[in-house]
User: Fold these one by one.
Assistant:
Number 1:
Amino acid sequence: MLLIQCPHCGDRNSDEFTFNGEIVPRPDADADPATWRRYLYMKSNGDGWQTERWFHVSGCRRFLRVERNLDTNEIRDVRDYGDPS
Amino acid sequence: MSDVKRPRYSAWKLLTQGFSKKPWPKVWEHHELQSSYDVVIIGGGVHGLATAYYLARNHGITNVAVLEKFYIGSGGSGRNTAIVRSNYLTPEGSRFYDRSVKLYEHLAQDLNFNVMFEQRGHMTLAHSDSSLRTMRWRAEVNKLEGINSEVITPSEIKKLAPFLDITDHPRYPIHGALWHPPGGIIRHDAVVWGYARAAAALGTHIHQDTELTAIDVDSGRVIGVQTSRGPIATRVVINCTAGWASLISAMAGVTLPITTRPLQAAVTEPVKKFLHPVIVSGSLHTYVSQTSRGELVFGASVDPFASYSTRGSLEFTTGLATHVLELMPAISNMRLLRQWAGLCDMTPDFGPIIGPTPADGFYVDVGWGTYGFKAGPVAGESVADMIANGQPGRLIEPFGLDRFEKGTLTAEKGAAAVGH
Ligand SMILES: Cc1cc2nc3c(=O)[nH]c(=O)nc-3n(C[C@H](O)[C@H](O)[C@H](O)COP(=O)(O)OP(=O)(O)OC[C@H]3O[C@@H](n4cnc5c(N)ncnc54)[C@H](O)[C@@H]3O)c2cc1C
Ligand SMILES: [Zn+2]
């Protein structure tokens, strides 16, 4: 079981959330199609610590910024997506 | 080839060897790491080993090293549920996997090693009108490629799998199925060992306990690699590391459209034979087959988040039990013996990535997601061909890395997401 400490709802099982993957900076609106495709598809998919987005679908329905270790699944930081990181 | 002779296996040999109380002869030799190889393959799974075998057998390229950081088959190749089939959704997918089924049909002969390929038929259940429509589509695409694949009715399903409830009582009633007689299951470990043994006999060096730690790239071209046992000079490196593909590619400065996700499976205690074909239900996110030993092997969809951890979860087991019992209530008293996980290299379009990369001399054979074991033979054959001829052949051309920048994705999700 993976527990996520939602800043709004407290400790909740990860199956209350949907996983949106690693956070990749979004290109400018007028970027060319190749840049947009790179943004859509290319992933660093590294091991170790990753900053990623989750959505608390069965809770507060807020997007969250989560720091998780991909080798161990340990979570060290969770904050609302709108909060400064 | 010095002192290691390729042992022959027969009933007589088993008997005499058994009584002799002597250890079985070594199947392949341990080699020192050479300072250079013509080709270095990273990953000792079915893809790396099949590539090594076809390089040697079809092209006489034998100055080849396979580097495996752990032991061969320790990745997805030793953890999968061993389903082989070719009833995919796209013409390029069906064609490609069909070649693999054909190679698997002769593999035991080719390798002189029993891989226990049992073509028991592969049945994908439709629980809704829309999935029945997709199946009809798949069947038509398959037939055009000459693949035996058809939509069957509930009464035909009942004949092939008598314990399935085809009434309208279940929450997800069975409306029909896609039936694919050439599909089946195989002994995955035997495939890995068979390829390793045959490649080694042809001169390939298989280095277990040898981890790739860096790739040396000089002005855009691969010139060598660093390993836990020392450096190797080489101009060709092939990445066959599935779940670890992004980490290895990053060493050559290549980014991939891959996310690594764990996939879990489970097996029950053995019981008397009652299930012949492989049964898949996309709507119930599950599939099941019965091994020749009598165990039921279950699988599901990938875990809901990315990870390099292969730890199992209770969510998987409870979800699996719920779905499987919906399909086969009669097995509710059976006990699960084991559950495990492997890493899957998921791509956005559920197609593999095979071919050259922006780093000269660095090739990938990755993106095998939850469905790549069946592709081992055809991928190995095609990659070997590409290395020998300098360019990707017809079968793998649609699967190049550049498709993601060009926007020419394949659309295999409908046939690859659950039914591995
Ligand atoms: C539970 C489960 C069920 C599945 N079911 C099916 C199925 O029914 N049918 C099907 O077709 N497919 C199935 N698959 C998918 C299939 O297992 C994989 O796609 C396939 O085995 C990939 O083979 P491979 O040789 O590319 O990679 P792997 O077998 O994963 O081999 C990669 C190897 O690379 C090694 N490696 C990693 N990093 C390094 C390094 N730095 N240096 C050296 N070596 C390294 C690893 O140790 C590993 O042995 C399933 C997968 C799982 C997990
Ligand atoms: Zn919340």
Number 2:
Amino acid sequence: MKLRVYAIAYLIFLYAPIILLPIFAFNDATIIAFPLSGFTTEWFAELTQNRALHAAVQNSLIIAVCTAVFATILGLCAARAGAMSDFPGKKGITGFIMLPLVLPEIIVAVALLVILRQVLGLSLGNWTIIMAHVLICTPFSIAILNGAFGALDPSMEEAALDLGESRWSAFRLVTLPLVMPGIISSMLISFTISLDEFIIAFFLTGSNPTMPVYIWGLLRFPKSLPVIMALGTILVALSVILLTIAEIFRRRGVRRAGGTDTGGFL
Amino acid sequence: MTDLIKLRGVDKYYGDYHALRDINLTIRAGEFFSLLGPSGCGKTTLLRVIAGFEGVSGGTVMISDKDMADVPPNQRPTNMVFQSYAIFPHLSVGENVAFGLRKSGLNKADKASAVEEALSMVGLAGYGKRAAHALSGGQRQRVALARALILKPKVLLLDEPLSALDKKMREHMQVELIRLQRAVGITFILVTHDQEEALVMSDRIAVMFAGEIGQLDDPETLYRRPNSRRVAEFIGKMNFLPGRVTATGDTITLDIAGFGVTDVPAVQAPEGATLGEAAIGIRPETLAILFDGEKASRHEAAAVVDEVVYYGDMTYYDVRVNNVPEPLTIAMKNMIGRPVLDVGAQTRIAWDERAIVVF
Ligand SMILES: Nc1ncnc2c1ncn2[C@@H]1O[C@H](COP(=O)(O)OP(=O)(O)OP(=O)(O)O)[C@@H](O)[C@H]1O
Ligand SMILES: [Mg+2]
């Protein structure tokens, strides 16, 4: 009984702020407070008018797509090397690759900023954010793809080789389709992480802010709070949808490769 | 028969581990050859060396008198049926079977008829459209066979293809495989740790222990004249009695504990006989319990039944004979009018010096 009370309290604590988002996004008042005063879609309409916001969203999308692609390619190489061949120092290297998973983002951001600006003297732009996002997304990609490769019977690729295919076409014709659900899942998760990421983007952004950075800028104007609520509602919905799709693909991948599920991120 | 595969002094190391030790082996075209041995003795490794998935650390592998050192697996005239079958789950049965034909240059219609032919060869005619992941174990195994055989390899390598099947299915597939091998005339190399399977199916069997070949012979020779005690112990069951060799030459004179003195020809000591202590091997089915009034054609000894194991068609008795330290196992066929003895029963047993092997 007691335990149930705790569980419910915990769930409220966890999800109340998120539930408040759509409530106030449709509330007809500029002040974020109860009681609610009426239903409106005005804030959503305002979103469609905002040029600066559109530019920020576009930036974020470019960064997120590039990050998803690069992180997944790197993850694919690492997971494949880990699954197929044994080489000296494999354990140590794997550990190092996974390190950014637990590294505080602020440290990564500051370190990158120092190196890019002070040491290399480069100017900041979308590509610097992409690089940093690839760094933090690759471990997730590896973890997902390790699962996909781990469930794969190593004799699959050998069988293709045995039937006359070259190493590359054996990989392309057999391994790749079997880990494809993992690849899609990895891309979706990297995309979501990059789209929502604030700290690194805040430090490394050039003249064009990303969407989270733009939202942070809006917070200075109390009047625009409901608009942010509307935007937040859309983002939460999008994240939930993308992560759900990613999880569906990840599970399908493990099943297709014939393995048993050992748990993912969701 | 011409020689197809020759291995000369093949060594294989995994790091420090010596997995294959100086393997010399000749496999003839068209034969059904088995690699038999306990788990971890290197059967799979040897098969993968022949297929080209593992390089050798020393020695040469020749197929049709061509050195295979620089030939990758996709260019060797071998095809493999993997232990897990490795059926591609994202393709249909037909696409699986047709996989090896991608580079063949056949047109669509020819490919389709080749696939249908291969599928009907393994008893799966009309299964082409099925999804591969929905097949039973036995069906997967057949698809793997069809997929390998469609390329008409010189050698088909099979890594414990029947071990995942239940007993009935396994026995059925043993017969099917023999029939298939005779029909296609392709050399089969079968890896198995099941001695019965090897005896039933093979023209010749190589028995491996710890990376070495212990004996290479046809099934009957292997069973009747094992060349060492470890082969004798691995293939079938054998009783061992302590004994002494008291004279050597063309005939060997033996003094066997509990059985007495007898002469055997020198061929019954495959390792050669030296004066002094020897182990005398006798198979359970070459001994017999003598029931009321029966007489031994050669020799007999008194015994007490120590254990009875009833198998339906057979009864296995463990009996104690005076001066023999271990109980002897005797296999008796159950026949009409022949009783099953009880533990503790006094009886006589018959033995034949022609059936013994001296180690
Ligand atoms: N890739 C490898 N790296 C290191 N050692 C290996 C490797 N492959 C096999 N071995 C070792 O070589 C030995 C022989 O292995 P192999 O797989 O050939 O045995 P096997 O006779 O097929 O056994 P089983 O009947 O269990 O399949 C084993 O001790 C195994 O641990
Ligand atoms: Mg094996």
